[in-house]
Amino acid sequence: MRDKDYDFHSITLSGRTFVGSMSVDGPYISEQNKGVALGSCCSVGRDQNGDWAIFKYRDQHRLSLKGLSDDDVADLVVEFGIRLHDSRPEEWMHFFNSPAWPKCSAWINKHPRIAARFANTTHYLPGWFDRAIAEGRAVKKAA
How far apart are CA 64 and CA 120, in angstroms? Predict the structure, then answer.
């Protein structure tokens, strides 16, 4: 079960709430305790039934998006910077430009000791911890 204290962002689409939270895998997206780490392993595509889903490594169905409209799926992709199956592999970096990233970065800077416990998990989203800490320092320095 997800610890809600680790949540940094959420979006509700067609009555379904998708949550960004910190996990042992780093930044993570879930709905009702099913999800996947954000970053290089995470993508959105069609499953064998033709429904939208979030996958890990393109072949591990992790989160069904059945019932969401194409517009809802597009909003979710943008909100969390998730790449589409047919996109270039480097497009996983969209998370850093997504609306979810500043909230993730703020959560990391508010809870640096908790986030530091997961900082070595960078294989899905390289540099997430160091990037957030650097952004936090820049904000403090500018203030």
Answer: 29
Give ∠ CA 117-138-118 in degrees, rounded to 5: 10
**Residues spanned by the domain of 65:** 4-142
Contacts of 7 (CB under 8 A, 6+ apart): 19, 20, 21, 107
Residue 82 per-residue DSSP state? P
User: Could you tell me if 44 and 84 are in contact, meaning their C-beta atoms sit under 8 angstroms apart?
Assistant: yes
Count of domains forming the chain:
1
132, amino acid identity: A
Local mean pLDDT, 10-residue blocks, the chain (143 residues): 84 97 94 92 93 93 96 96 78 84 97 93 88 88 71
First-to-final CA distance of the chain: 38
Inter-residue contact 80 to 51 (CB < 8 Å):
no
H helices of the chain, where?
A: 70-80, 100-110, 112-116, 128-142
Task: Quote the pTM value.
Answer: 0.90
